[in-house]
Amino acid sequence: MSRNYELFPDDDNGNVLWQMVEDGNDLNEPHEFEFSIVFKEQSDIEKCALHLLHQEQKVSLFQEDQHTEGSDLWVLNIHVTMTPEYDDIQDLEQWFTHIAQDFGGDYDGWGCMSYLYEYEDDEPLQN
């Protein structure tokens, strides 16, 4: 299969989505994405989490272990289940970047669990 650069542009998001295809992920199926925002202050992450909950977003948060600069960062993950499409990811990144700035945080990217299937055994494998 050759890469369609209209569906998978040559940038970070397009490259990750294309890698998911090459790894055997079906991008026509919904996947759960985690978009992350990091904060230095607990009060800021709590305000942002509450704002996102009011926006009907599913969130989780935790405090990282001691960071290299000596500070403990707080991480807010926004869990979005969607069919992976480049434009939707771009839009969500812009929205979460704006929200991060509004609450004193920094948008830190996204990740997605891969689900791979071996059709011989009819048993799904999680990657």
CATH homologous superfamily annotation: RraB-like
- Structural class comes to alpha+beta
User: Alpha-carbon distance between the termini?
Assistant: 22 Å
Cα-based radius of gyration, to the nearest Å: 17 Å
Strand content: 25-35%
| CATH topology grouping | Alpha-Beta Plaits
Number of strands: 6
The largest sheet is:
4 strands, antiparallel
Q: Give the spatial strand order of the biggest sheet.
A: 2-3-1-4
Low-confidence stretches at least 5 residues in length (pLDDT < 50)? none
Under the CATH scheme, the architecture is: 2-Layer Sandwich
Number of domains: 1
SSE string: HEHEEHEEE
* Percent range of helical residues: 25-40%
Oligomer category: single chain
| Average of per-residue pLDDT values | 90
User: What is the 3D form?
Assistant: elongated
What's the CATH first level? Alpha Beta
Helix segment count? 3
Organism: Acinetobacter baylyi (strain ATCC 33305 / BD413 / ADP1)
InterPro entries: RraB-like_sf (IPR036701), RraB_dom (IPR009671)
Domain Regulator of ribonuclease activity B: 11-112
Protein name: Regulator of ribonuclease activity B domain-containing protein
